[in-house]
Specification:
CATH topology of the largest domain in chain A: Na+/H+ antiporter like fold
Oligomer: homodimer
Number of helices of chain A: 20
CATH class of the largest domain in chain A: Mainly Alpha
Order of helices and strands of chain A: HHHHHHHHHHHHHHHHHHHH
């Protein structure tokens, strides 16, 4: 039974043979990783010195090496005719060109993209490990309120505003409104970790709400995408999504908690090196794979795995072992998010951008207000920093870009509206980390002691300000 | 200036768009990693329980999940018509097929291959960190003798034997003889680390000789490949290779030692997380890239980087941080080496294999004798375990497979001779780890104390036997 219908592909594969291509792909990946790490560290260190969150520096470092400026790290969708500068370097040091070189470029991009995805999976696994399931369940109702308001308010304000103020048709307005509902759990969680606020009450509400928002975002995206495609909402798919998301999160955590003693027992029986980290990665990857297969996101599975293992007696040891892996892989994610972002749409001197920029300023205002209000909806928590919770929900990050990408592919978005969404995503993503630092600096609450560990690997400048 | 001559490729790229392919590639990679880790851990644990080196278990685990048996981890060259079972699983859980599915399979294979390559780069970096440059230089003359004899004896015995006893033509005989010269530095080093003998005098002679053998192997391969292609040896290329290899190894170590205080100074100035590990990886990847670009192997650069950083005051901290990364990536290398190995050529019931098996038994004998004698050539080292040194040089591993692959691609090797080389590679690779354990068990020398650290992550069964 032949699996591949198109046999000519097999021929292409055979021609551009492994033996010829693979060493070049490896060379390309090594160069890309060197570039990514230099961008991450230079950006991160500069930001740390002017008291901005290092992750903002990694994003900005990515912008500098990416499609907006140096073209060192670019991906097929933004490569244009000339490809990346790194691949041109590879082509000048070898006699490879044409289809062979494209195949090398494609391979290298694929590997770097997947390393970035593994990076955000490891990040969410680490965030899960640092989180406290009991605390998350305790703040669950508040997190749910924050998440739901953070979806409804920006969507309603954005969609009606675009229709009323800008005369935009319903479907594109709904799409843009939907893009306003996203929250980038990766960026928010990373900034919270850098500020050592991850296990504060505010931090846990933000994380809980961001996870729920991720699920809500997937549902919203499914709804608007089917709306754009067929003009109507496929209720059945939406129901399946909601049920499977709920079943997955609840099921993973309950079954995981039942099985975790078996896990610890197995790990204790093992005699070879890496027994804890490999077993934990298998667990995290299995949950990530299941989450990806049922149309959720892989990172939700990794987060659930981290939450479950955080309750085992092995969690301290595991947290220590995951740090170097996270340090290696996570910057690849943030730098590539920056590298993929084309900031040229922000240039007001280009007349083609002006219409987009006007819509964008409206979207940015709605994006910020729509999330900041969520904090003030938190009930029954005295002395909590409500502003910080709202600010923590602001960054749209890669999730917002997915909305723009799907909208653009479906043909629902005009060029200026797509550009406006991208501008909104860029500004909320880049503005949230420093804002979050400011609102937490004003806070009176001292961070709990459990956070010292994550902090130990960090800067002395990043000590919490206890007033 | 268009970089890609063949524009139809761009069309193919655009059709099989990122948005559709990438989540499936990620799912494929996650499934592959889960499979790899399960194979590595089950194989490794079983071997540890019957007192065999865990790395042998990882290789055998790879054979079980690879092209020889379960077809869970296969690569395009061994995929045949049906592809991997994992990809069939992906195809049944989605509606992807034809060119799209092939593109997913190709992407997934590429990523897993590169992760394996990064694994062996990290392994050699770790081995470099655990090695002692001064000790390596001190045993340099002995290592050089071991390496040279280990190339000359198997090559001479193998080539003449094939011509005289089996009536094989000169060029194929030279190719098979050349394949006998290889030593797999990865397998040897891993077994030594598992036996806690890496920094023993024997261990350092083996590592030094294996590194030199790797360089010699590249030169031998260049010579025989040009011989097979053009019928004559391109002296100029060979000279360039020898000069660049020598210049690289000496230059990297001398310039590296001069610059390492600058490196430590920079790392000490950094304030963001992962400062040591990221800086060290950048250093290792830069040397790996340079080594790969001048036609050496990337792993030699990583080994040199490890050696240099081993001399800095940061080396203890770095060794600890590299362990989880190594635990995560190195098994991917060993399992994929096993997975790529087609052990069906070992089946004596298949008449097509018989001629190859007869030649193979000759090659295996030469392969073992030709390396074991090298230990007895070591001079001026009293009380050294000479047999252990010779046995440590036996495994051909992936290096031997490269010879078989290049020979097969050049058309110089008949099918039976290629099969014989593969059988020789398999047997030497799989037999060496247990043999090495036996000959070291007989040894009187107690391992030096520096090795305790690497051992701490290992089994209690693996304590050295001090008689």
């Amino acid at each position: 039974m032949p699996l591949y219908g198109d046999v000519s592909w097999l021929t292409i594969l055979a021609e551009a043979s492994e033996a010829e291509i693979e060493p070049l792909v490896l060379a390309g990946v090594l160069l890309s990783l060197i570039t990514v790490y230099l961008a991450a560290k230079i950006g991160g260190e500069l930001c740390a010195r002017v008291n901005l969150p290092p992750v903002l520096g990694e994003l900005l470092g990515g912008v500098v090496v990416g499609v907006s400026a140096l073209h060192l790290i670019v991906f097929p969708e933004g490569a244009g005719e000339t490809g990346s500068v790194l691949m041109q370097l590879v082509s000048t040091t070898t006699d490879m060109d044409g289809a062979g070189l494209l195949s090398v470029f494609r391979g290298e991009s694929e590997v770097v993209s997947i390393l970035a995805e593994l990076g955000v999976i490891i990040l969410l696994f680490e965030i899960g490990l640092e989180s406290d399931l009991k605390e998350l369940i305790r703040v669950g109702p508040q997190a749910a309120v924050v998440a739901i308001i953070g979806v409804v308010v920006p969507f309603a304000l954005g969609t009606t505003g675009l229709i009323v103020l800008f005369n935009i048709a319903t479907i594109p307005a709904v799409f843009a409104g939907a893009a306003l509902t996203a929250t980038s759990i990766g960026i928010t969680a990373k900034v919270l970790a850098e500020l050592q606020r991850l296990s504060s009450r505010e931090g846990q509400i933000i994380i809980g709400a961001a996870v729920l928002d991720d699920v809500l975002g997937i549902i919203v995206l499914a709804v608007v995408a089917s709306l754009a495609k067929t003009g109507e909402i496929e209720i059945q798919n939406v129901v399946i999504l909601i049920v499977s998301a709920a079943a997955f999160l609840i099921g993973a955590i309950f079954i995981g908690r039942l099985l975790s003693p078996v896990f610890v027992g197995l790990v204790n029986q093992m005699k070879t090196r890496g027994e804890l980290i490999i077993s934990s990665l298998v667990f995290a990857f299995v949950l990530s794979y299941i989450a990806a297969t049922i149309q959720l996101e892989a990172i939700l599975g990794a987060f659930a795995a981290g939450l479950i293992l955080a309750e085992t007696p092995k969690h301290k040891e595991l947290e220590e072992q995951i740090i170097p892996i996270s340090d290696m892989l996570v910057p690849i994610f943030f730098v590539t998010v920056g590298a993929r972002t084309d900031v040229s749409v922000l240039n007001p001197l280009d007349p083609a951008n002006r219409e987009g920029l006007i819509i964008a300023s409206f979207l940015v205002v709605v994006a910020i207000i729509g999330k900041v209000v969520t904090g003030f909806a938190v009930f029954g928590q005295e002395g909590i920093n409500k502003l910080a919770i709202g600010v923590g929900m602001i960054p749209r990050g890669e999730v917002g870009l997915v909305f723009a990408g799907v909208g653009s592919a479906s043909g629902a978005l005009s060029e200026s509206l797509e550009a406006a969404i991208i501008v909104m995503v860029i500004l909320t993503t880049f503005v949230a980390p420093p804002l979050l630092r400011i609102v937490f600096k004003d806070s009176d609450a001292a961070p709990p002691t459990e956070e010292v560990e994550l902090a130990s690997a960090q800067s002395s400048e990043e000590q919490p300000s206890v007033s």
